[in-house]
Write a structure and sequence with these properties.
Strand content: 15-25%
CATH architecture: 3-Layer(aba) Sandwich
Largest sheet: 8 strands, mixed
Oligomer: single chain
Number of helices: 10
Number of domains: 1
Helix content: 25-40%
Distance between the termini: 36 Å
CATH topology: Rossmann fold
Protein backbone atom coordinates (compact mmCIF):
# COMPACT_ATOMS: atom_id res chain seq x y z
CA UNK A 1 0.00 0.00 0.00
CA UNK A 2 1.32 3.41 -0.99
CA UNK A 3 0.92 6.35 1.37
CA UNK A 4 0.84 9.62 -0.61
CA UNK A 5 1.84 11.66 2.45
CA UNK A 6 4.88 9.49 3.17
CA UNK A 7 5.94 9.38 -0.48
CA UNK A 8 5.65 13.16 -0.83
CA UNK A 9 8.38 13.74 1.77
CA UNK A 10 11.45 15.34 0.18
CA UNK A 11 9.34 16.37 -2.81
CA UNK A 12 11.92 18.74 -4.24
CA UNK A 13 14.65 16.09 -4.19
CA UNK A 14 12.35 13.44 -5.68
CA UNK A 15 11.10 15.70 -8.48
CA UNK A 16 14.47 17.01 -9.64
CA UNK A 17 15.28 13.94 -11.81
CA UNK A 18 11.86 14.31 -13.48
CA UNK A 19 12.68 17.80 -14.69
CA UNK A 20 16.20 16.80 -15.72
CA UNK A 21 14.64 14.00 -17.78
CA UNK A 22 11.84 15.95 -19.43
CA UNK A 23 14.07 18.80 -20.51
CA UNK A 24 15.81 16.36 -22.89
CA UNK A 25 12.54 15.57 -24.69
CA UNK A 26 12.39 17.64 -27.87
CA UNK A 27 8.73 17.17 -28.81
CA UNK A 28 7.10 20.40 -30.01
CA UNK A 29 3.41 19.69 -30.65
CA UNK A 30 2.60 16.20 -29.38
CA UNK A 31 -0.95 14.93 -29.72
CA UNK A 32 -0.94 12.69 -26.65
CA UNK A 33 1.40 12.67 -23.65
CA UNK A 34 1.27 9.80 -21.14
CA UNK A 35 2.87 9.74 -17.70
CA UNK A 36 3.33 6.15 -16.49
CA UNK A 37 3.52 5.62 -12.74
CA UNK A 38 2.56 9.22 -12.07
CA UNK A 39 1.45 8.87 -8.41
CA UNK A 40 -0.92 11.76 -7.63
CA UNK A 41 -0.12 13.51 -10.92
CA UNK A 42 1.50 16.62 -9.49
CA UNK A 43 4.34 16.36 -11.99
CA UNK A 44 1.91 15.34 -14.74
CA UNK A 45 0.46 18.84 -14.47
CA UNK A 46 3.80 20.29 -15.54
CA UNK A 47 3.62 18.21 -18.74
CA UNK A 48 0.24 19.76 -19.50
CA UNK A 49 1.74 23.21 -18.93
CA UNK A 50 4.60 22.49 -21.32
CA UNK A 51 2.37 21.02 -24.03
CA UNK A 52 -0.99 22.77 -23.61
CA UNK A 53 -2.29 21.49 -26.95
CA UNK A 54 -1.79 17.83 -26.04
CA UNK A 55 -4.06 15.38 -24.30
CA UNK A 56 -2.07 14.66 -21.14
CA UNK A 57 -2.99 11.67 -18.99
CA UNK A 58 -1.40 9.69 -16.20
CA UNK A 59 -1.54 6.05 -15.14
CA UNK A 60 -0.81 4.62 -11.70
CA UNK A 61 -1.50 1.27 -10.05
CA UNK A 62 -2.02 2.61 -6.51
CA UNK A 63 -5.65 3.32 -5.54
CA UNK A 64 -4.35 5.50 -2.70
CA UNK A 65 -2.37 7.66 -5.13
CA UNK A 66 -5.14 7.90 -7.72
CA UNK A 67 -7.64 8.87 -5.01
CA UNK A 68 -5.47 11.94 -4.30
CA UNK A 69 -4.82 12.75 -7.97
CA UNK A 70 -4.65 16.39 -9.03
CA UNK A 71 -4.45 15.62 -12.77
CA UNK A 72 -6.21 13.31 -15.26
CA UNK A 73 -4.98 10.04 -13.77
CA UNK A 74 -6.39 6.56 -14.39
CA UNK A 75 -5.96 3.50 -12.19
CA UNK A 76 -4.15 0.69 -13.99
CA UNK A 77 -1.13 -1.57 -14.26
CA UNK A 78 1.77 -0.15 -16.25
CA UNK A 79 2.53 -3.66 -17.52
CA UNK A 80 -0.84 -3.75 -19.29
CA UNK A 81 -0.43 -0.36 -20.98
CA UNK A 82 0.36 0.04 -24.68
CA UNK A 83 0.88 3.24 -26.70
CA UNK A 84 -1.82 4.34 -29.10
CA UNK A 85 -1.37 5.71 -32.63
CA UNK A 86 -1.25 9.30 -31.33
CA UNK A 87 0.99 8.68 -28.30
CA UNK A 88 3.81 11.03 -29.19
CA UNK A 89 5.43 11.35 -25.74
CA UNK A 90 5.74 8.80 -22.93
CA UNK A 91 7.30 9.79 -19.62
CA UNK A 92 7.90 7.39 -16.76
CA UNK A 93 9.71 8.65 -13.69
CA UNK A 94 10.88 6.39 -10.84
CA UNK A 95 8.26 3.75 -11.61
CA UNK A 96 9.64 0.98 -13.82
CA UNK A 97 11.77 -0.46 -11.01
CA UNK A 98 8.47 -1.80 -9.63
CA UNK A 99 7.52 -3.43 -12.97
CA UNK A 100 9.35 -6.76 -13.22
CA UNK A 101 8.55 -7.09 -16.93
CA UNK A 102 9.83 -3.65 -17.92
CA UNK A 103 12.96 -5.05 -19.56
CA UNK A 104 10.76 -6.93 -22.03
CA UNK A 105 8.16 -4.17 -22.34
CA UNK A 106 10.58 -1.33 -23.04
CA UNK A 107 11.51 -2.32 -26.62
CA UNK A 108 7.87 -3.17 -27.35
CA UNK A 109 6.69 0.24 -26.19
CA UNK A 110 9.35 2.10 -28.17
CA UNK A 111 8.73 0.07 -31.34
CA UNK A 112 4.99 0.78 -31.07
CA UNK A 113 5.39 4.56 -30.87
CA UNK A 114 4.49 6.55 -33.98
CA UNK A 115 7.26 8.05 -36.10
CA UNK A 116 8.73 11.01 -34.25
CA UNK A 117 7.60 9.68 -30.87
CA UNK A 118 9.56 10.13 -27.66
CA UNK A 119 10.04 7.74 -24.72
CA UNK A 120 11.65 9.15 -21.58
CA UNK A 121 12.38 7.09 -18.47
CA UNK A 122 14.18 7.49 -15.17
CA UNK A 123 14.74 4.79 -12.57
CA UNK A 124 16.73 4.71 -9.34
CA UNK A 125 20.12 3.09 -9.74
CA UNK A 126 21.07 3.03 -6.06
CA UNK A 127 20.27 -0.58 -5.20
CA UNK A 128 23.85 -1.17 -4.05
CA UNK A 129 23.76 1.86 -1.76
CA UNK A 130 24.47 1.50 1.99
CA UNK A 131 20.77 1.79 2.85
CA UNK A 132 19.74 -0.94 0.46
CA UNK A 133 22.54 -3.18 1.72
CA UNK A 134 21.15 -2.74 5.24
CA UNK A 135 17.69 -3.70 4.00
CA UNK A 136 18.99 -6.84 2.30
CA UNK A 137 20.92 -7.81 5.40
CA UNK A 138 17.95 -7.35 7.71
CA UNK A 139 15.23 -8.82 5.51
CA UNK A 140 16.74 -10.86 2.67
CA UNK A 141 13.52 -12.83 2.19
CA UNK A 142 11.50 -9.64 1.62
CA UNK A 143 13.88 -7.73 -0.60
CA UNK A 144 14.48 -8.00 -4.35
CA UNK A 145 17.58 -8.29 -6.45
CA UNK A 146 18.62 -5.23 -8.47
CA UNK A 147 15.48 -4.56 -10.54
CA UNK A 148 17.05 -2.19 -13.10
CA UNK A 149 19.81 -2.23 -15.70
CA UNK A 150 22.66 0.17 -16.45
CA UNK A 151 22.13 2.98 -18.98
CA UNK A 152 23.97 1.22 -21.80
CA UNK A 153 21.56 -1.74 -21.63
CA UNK A 154 18.53 0.51 -22.02
CA UNK A 155 20.26 2.43 -24.82
CA UNK A 156 20.91 -0.75 -26.79
CA UNK A 157 17.27 -1.79 -26.35
CA UNK A 158 16.07 1.56 -27.67
CA UNK A 159 18.36 1.43 -30.70
CA UNK A 160 17.27 -2.14 -31.49
CA UNK A 161 13.66 -0.92 -31.37
CA UNK A 162 14.36 1.69 -34.04
CA UNK A 163 15.06 4.81 -31.97
CA UNK A 164 17.94 7.15 -31.35
CA UNK A 165 19.05 6.83 -27.73
CA UNK A 166 20.27 9.36 -25.20
CA UNK A 167 21.19 7.50 -22.01
CA UNK A 168 23.06 8.69 -18.94
CA UNK A 169 23.35 8.44 -15.19
CA UNK A 170 23.61 11.06 -12.47
CA UNK A 171 24.39 10.78 -8.80
CA UNK A 172 22.65 13.51 -6.84
CA UNK A 173 24.09 14.40 -3.47
CA UNK A 174 21.11 15.24 -1.32
CA UNK A 175 22.01 17.08 1.89
CA UNK A 176 19.07 16.27 4.14
CA UNK A 177 18.45 18.07 7.45
CA UNK A 178 18.16 15.94 10.56
CA UNK A 179 14.89 16.80 12.29
CA UNK A 180 13.87 14.48 15.15
CA UNK A 181 14.35 11.34 13.01
CA UNK A 182 17.05 10.27 10.60
CA UNK A 183 16.04 11.61 7.16
CA UNK A 184 17.23 8.56 5.22
CA UNK A 185 14.86 6.38 7.24
CA UNK A 186 12.02 8.77 6.45
CA UNK A 187 13.01 8.79 2.75
CA UNK A 188 13.19 5.01 2.44
CA UNK A 189 9.88 4.53 4.25
CA UNK A 190 8.25 5.99 1.16
CA UNK A 191 9.88 3.56 -1.27
CA UNK A 192 12.23 0.66 -0.48
CA UNK A 193 10.81 -0.10 2.96
CA UNK A 194 7.20 -0.09 1.76
CA UNK A 195 6.98 -3.84 0.93
CA UNK A 196 8.60 -4.69 4.27
CA UNK A 197 6.18 -2.51 6.19
CA UNK A 198 3.28 -4.23 4.40
CA UNK A 199 4.59 -7.67 5.38
CA UNK A 200 5.07 -6.96 9.09
CA UNK A 201 2.67 -6.43 11.95
CA UNK A 202 2.77 -3.19 13.91
CA UNK A 203 5.06 -4.45 16.69
CA UNK A 204 7.37 -6.24 14.26
CA UNK A 205 7.60 -3.11 12.15
CA UNK A 206 8.35 -0.95 15.18
CA UNK A 207 11.23 -3.24 16.13
CA UNK A 208 12.49 -3.47 12.53
CA UNK A 209 12.36 0.28 12.05
CA UNK A 210 14.33 0.97 15.22
CA UNK A 211 17.12 -1.41 14.27
CA UNK A 212 17.11 -0.08 10.72
CA UNK A 213 17.42 3.49 12.00
CA UNK A 214 20.35 2.51 14.24
CA UNK A 215 22.17 0.90 11.33
CA UNK A 216 21.43 3.75 8.94
CA UNK A 217 22.90 6.21 11.43
CA UNK A 218 26.25 4.43 11.14
CA UNK A 219 26.39 4.47 7.31
CA UNK A 220 24.83 7.93 6.89
CA UNK A 221 26.18 9.93 9.85
CA UNK A 222 24.86 13.36 10.78
CA UNK A 223 27.39 16.17 10.37
CA UNK A 224 26.55 19.78 11.19
CA UNK A 225 22.88 18.90 11.26
CA UNK A 226 22.90 17.42 7.73
CA UNK A 227 23.02 13.91 6.29
CA UNK A 228 24.77 13.33 2.97
CA UNK A 229 22.60 11.00 0.88
CA UNK A 230 24.08 10.15 -2.56
CA UNK A 231 21.40 8.89 -4.95
CA UNK A 232 22.25 7.41 -8.36
CA UNK A 233 19.63 7.77 -11.11
CA UNK A 234 19.50 6.15 -14.57
CA UNK A 235 17.98 7.96 -17.56
CA UNK A 236 16.94 7.12 -21.10
CA UNK A 237 15.39 9.34 -23.76
CA UNK A 238 14.53 7.49 -26.98
CA UNK A 239 13.37 9.28 -30.15
CA UNK A 240 11.76 7.33 -33.00
Amino acid sequence: MWDPAVYSRFGAERSRPFFDLVQRVGAERPREVVDLGCATGELTLTLAERWPGARVTGLDSSPEMVAKAVADVALGDIADWRPGPETDVVVTNAALQWVDEHRELLPEWIAALPAGGWFAMQVPGNFDSPGHRVVRDMAPELNRENPVDDPDVYARQAIAAGAAADAWETTYLHLLPFEEEHPVVRWMEGTALRPIRAALGDEEWKSFRKEFADRIATVHPVRDGLVAFPFRRIFLVAHK
